[in-house]
Every structure is written in C-alpha cells, then in structure tokens.
# Entry
Amino acid sequence: MARGASRDPLPGSRLWTMPTFRAPRGTRDLLPDERVVFDRLRRTATTLTTRYGYRPIETPMFEQAAVFERGVGEVTDIVEKELFRIAPRTEDSEAWALRPEPTAGIVRAYVQHGMQTWPQPVKLTMTGPMFRYDRPQAGRYRQFWQFDVEAIGDAGPAIDAEIIELGHRFYTEVGVTGVEVLVNSIGDPACRPAYIAALTDHYRGHAAELPSTELDRLERNALRLLDSKDPAMAALNATAPRTTDHLCEACAAHFASVKAHLVALDVPFRVEPGLVRGLDYYTRTAFEFYVAGREGQQQALGGGGRYDGLVALLGGKPTPGIGFGLGLDRVALVLAEQGGGAAVHAETGPLAVVVGADPDDTVSRLRVATNLRAAGLRVRADLARRRLGRQLEAAGRDGAHFAVILGDELEAGQVQMRDLLAGTQRLVPIGDLARELARAEAGHKHG
Ligand code: AMP
# Structure
C-alpha cells in the first residue's frame, strides 16, 4: 500500500457498511456455499428423474393469472392471498402472475402443445424458483425453489406409488435421513360432494368458534378449513369427519392399491386423514414428505398428489395426472442441520493455486494455470502482484490442496508442487504437472 494511503478507498466510505439496498423481504441471495448445495440437489434431481424416465421442461416464471386462478383454485391461500400479481401496463393487457407452483403452468403447456397425442403418460420434470406473497418466516420465503415432477396421462394407482417412491429416494440420495411419507385420499367428484357436505355440517355446528376468515370460506370450500394454517382451527380439525371414511368404492380401491404398492416398494408411509393439500385440483392420492417427528407448519419438505380434473379445467380433454413439488430451500436447511452438505467446498474450490516468486510475472502464472485448466483441473492463478508469501497465504485461505510454485527452476522446465494440507513439497517437470495433480487428488479422495 502506498505510503500515506488510507485504508478507506474514499474518505467517508465507512457509510458503505450500511447497505442502501437489500434483497426484498422474504427473498435471499444464495451465496456460493449455498448455491453449490442447490446445484448438487438439482444434479441429483436430474440424474434421478432421467433414471425414472422423466424429461425436462421449462415453463415461464409468469403466466396469465387465470392459469393459476382456474388451475389452483380461486378459494385457496395461494390465489387469494399469496399470488404475486403483475400490474397490467395498459388497460387491455393481460393480467399476469408469477408462478406460485409449477403444476398449473406445466399442464397449461401440455394442453397448448398437444401433448395428449404423445405416448402417455407424459413424464416431465422442472426445477426452479416459485413465488408466494406469504408472511416470511423460518423456512417460508417469498421466492423459493422446487424440484417438480409430473406424470400426465396415467390414472394410476401404480404410478402414484412410483412417484412417491421417487420423491422418497431423492431425499435418500441427497443425504436427508428419516424422511417419512404421509398419504391420504381426498376422493373424487363422485364422493367428495357428500364428504364436503359432512365437513360443512361439522364446521357449521361450531360456527361460533370459527375465525372470521374461515367462516367466510366455509360456504365456498370447506376443505380449505381442514388445511387451515390458523392455530385456532387445530382442535376443530382434529374432530372433523375423515375423507377416508367417505370414499366411494372406486376411490377406496385406488387408495388401497396405492398403499399395497408402497408396501411392496418398502417406502415408509403413514396414512394421515387430515392431509388435504392447499390446492383445489387434487383428487384421490395426496401426500407430503416430512422428517419423522417434525410434522409442524413450514416443515413439509415436499408434497404432491393426483389431479385428474386439472387438464380439463385448463381446456384440454379430460386426462388424469399426478406429480410432486419438493422444496429445495427446506431440504438445504435440513441437510445443514443433519450435518450433510460437508465436503461441498472440496467439490468446487480450487484444487491448486499457481503462485510465483516473481510478483510481476503474471504471464507465466496465467500460462501454467491455463494449461492445467485445459487438462480439466480446477486451478486459480494468483494474478496479484504481491510477494510469494502473500500468494501462498491466499492459496491456503482458498482451501486449495496444492500450490504450484514458479521459481528459478522454471527455466529448467520444473516447478515446485506443494501439498498445502500435508506441508510437503517436491519438484515436478512441468510436462507431468497435470498428471501429478490429478493423481494426487484421486489418491487423496480414495485414501
Ligand atoms: P406446496 O405445494 O405448498 O405443498 O409446496 C410444496 C413444497 O414446497 C413444500 O412442501 C415446501 O417444502 C415448499 N414450499 C412451499 N412454500 C414454500 C415457501 N413459501 N418457502 C419455502 N418453501 C416452500
């Protein structure tokens, strides 16, 4: 640092410690360590869905608001309270909204692109951010990530179990332990009206105890009350009639078969009659994933269900479907709690840093690093014109395993390869360097 220079780049810059701008409430930046975890989750999702025959799709992050209003349902928290609506720019422009969940958009795409003429079922997967204008709290964000799969065109019940097993395997493969599946059947248009009538009677009998928002919803959709997040509803919901006692014969047979398939696949599950899910479009099978013993609000790691009416609701010919959305933010949280996600830095940090005795010779450092990168290695070149000691310190802070030191031996075609973890060092011919580094890394990983 030049003599007399202040550590502040500008006088008064200490004001900069109070940032002017922050990420919007309920959103967060995924800093590199966390972003790497998300990448790993996404990679697992991709390899797993490929194994199960799903193909990737990407729909826009916003849609006509009507796709969600009609698809998800008008009388749902997601549409009533949580939809991020985009203000129309002109009077005649369409009303749009950011996607609060992926299924409605994917089914819209299925109908729009005539996928009912493809071999059925059409099995699609997508991973990306979703948006809900909810009150932010631990594990609940306004922008969050979901890994989603949809199988459209198969009435089940075997595929219901296949999808649940796939979700369960995802948690196992990313390293979350103790995940349990809660399953339920919420009936279909044949048996649900009678069930909703029984449910409505139950709540009417307790009208005086209902919070006003729930009372308001009661006549429009009593199922929503069963799914209410209001703590005042817990006792009333515990004594409510159960869907599983009101299933028609076809729905009961379907549910029995889903359970039999789950048993055959060794998926740990529990029937939870209170599980109805927050969206209108579900029929029959509904499920959620939790870490066993942690089944509270904001703790569902993922959920899904069958939506046999949705394709028709969005203008297609009646076609059954089933899918799930797994919340990656929550998976990352649980992984951190369970001590997973370790060794993440080792996957993405530099294997080696190229440093040099001559602070000004950035050409040699960059050239050696470039050759190593071309050979497929993760390498940083120290491009600061600073003393070798400082360069080595920085390499240590980077978490690099090796430093490649360019010194006088370079003229004879040799460099020092220093193992920063072991504290050892040896001369290596420059032509052998890539091979030596790769071999040392492989040995380290397996040793
Ligand atoms: P849902 O369709 O509401 O059941 O959402 C599926 C999964 O996405 C949930 O089980 C959560 O893991 C995750 N999820 C839903 N909403 C949020 C949110 N606001 N913040 C973080 N994760 C969420």
